[in-house]
Amino acid sequence: MTIPRDIVPGSNTVVPSTPSPTAFFNAGTSPSYEANYFPAVPKKQLKPFNTGDIKILLLEDVNCTARELLQKEGYQVEFHTTSFRDIELIEKIRDVHVIGIRSKTRLTASVLDHAKNLLAIGCFCIGTNQVDLGYAAKRGITVFNSPFSNSRSVAELVIAEVIMLARRIGDKSMEMHFGTWQKASTRCCEIRGKVLGIVGYGHIGSQLSVLAESMGMSVLFYDIIPLMAIGKARQVKNLSELLVLSDFVTLHVPETQETRDLIGYAELKAMKQGSCLINASRGCSVDLQALCEAMRSGHLAGAALDVFPREPSADGPYFNEDLGRWVREIRDLPNIILTPHIGGSTKEAQEAIGTEVGGALVRYINFGCTIGAVNMPEVTLRNLAAPDESHLRVIFIHRNRPGVLRQVNDILGDHNVDMQMSDSRGDIAYMMADISKVDLAEVHALYNKLEILSCKIPNFLMSFGISLGLSH
């Protein structure tokens, strides 16, 4: 074990190691406390659980900003540039407290079943469809992502693709690479004065709207809820209206049952003759067989795809028929831009994502804060910095059923509760409490009672505590 790290500056007094985080975090266990765990230390010093015992696994070349942030906290960080297949992943995930992934790694229920100590998952990307969010919540595993940090990068890629499709740059470049000089301007046009139809007017769609208007385009957008338009953009009543009026249609929607095959045969037929389709959101949103037919018939003039229904799990010559028969057909089509899911793959976006998700993980590990979680209620209490008295933070994750919180509060009522907060999201409830003036006997008794409670309540999920500032 390593020496615990100060969360806030304190004296230079060295404090021996505290119990392993497993003792605090694992469900159904009561940590054993002995006097030598908590020797006398000066006040105004915050000593949490042993940060050096927190194990973090980062996959898929997560940006160095996240690695540096997590290592600075004193955690053990294991880093890999690739994703793992299930067998390797199950072995690696068995003992870690946090795993960080991007879009390739699949954290299914069968994989998560082997993660005995897992507290949190960091998705260093926008989407979380690669994680079984419901099952993670049932296991008390909190999931964080970065829904906004790469919005600008995706918007810029789409604008670039609009211009490239209008000028047929992809085909022209390929001809030149093969030695053909073809200077004709046939079927090439400016984007000024054209109509851009945006499906999904969120952070990416609204930024794209600003960029498109600045280049002289008219902007229409469709969203399932009424939204305030930026600039001169106009919201239309339904998807059909947008498809009929737009010269370029771009998708920016989440992956849901409603967005699966959002653009199929009927929708492509409804689009303007000679229009273009761009998809940089989710691969399942476009029926690719229908798109191939629309392109071959000449009804669509072009398309750009950054996402696909199935994508290779590693870099290399894997974009082939093993993914689906549509691969060969799409690769042979003219004026179609294919990119390997790089919408958010810019230096700026990855640094921002690393900072955002890494910071969320640190706040969760150190203080139990769930702000930004996608599968848990958002609950936070102020950070305990330089407390005057010994403190203990207790977090209890449980099913949202009558009577559970009352039984928890019956236990907490024997202690000096400074602050408490609870919230629920669907079937999951999350309770956080700060207890002050805690001595060793009280800590031991509190955890014993919570252990007994967890056995008696069938809808109990997980309880864990964060020991803060114990100065005995």
UniProtKB/TrEMBL annotation:
Q: Which family does it belong to?
A: Belongs to the D-isomer specific 2-hydroxyacid dehydrogenase family.
- Its recorded name reads phosphoglycerate dehydrogenase
The cross-references to CDD domains, in alphabetical order and at most eight, read: PGDH_3
Can the keyword Oxidoreductase be found in this entry's annotation?
Answer: yes
Q: What's its EC?
A: 1.1.1.95
| SUPFAM superfamilies (UniProt xref) | ACT-like (SSF55021), Formate/glycerate dehydrogenase catalytic domain-like (SSF52283), NAD(P)-binding Rossmann-fold domains (SSF51735)
Protein's pathway:
Amino-acid biosynthesis; L-serine biosynthesis; L-serine from 3-phospho-D-glycerate: step 1/3
Alphabetical UniProt keywords? NAD, Oxidoreductase
All copies of the ACT domain together span 393-464
* A GO molecular-function descriptor: (S)-2-hydroxyglutarate dehydrogenase activity
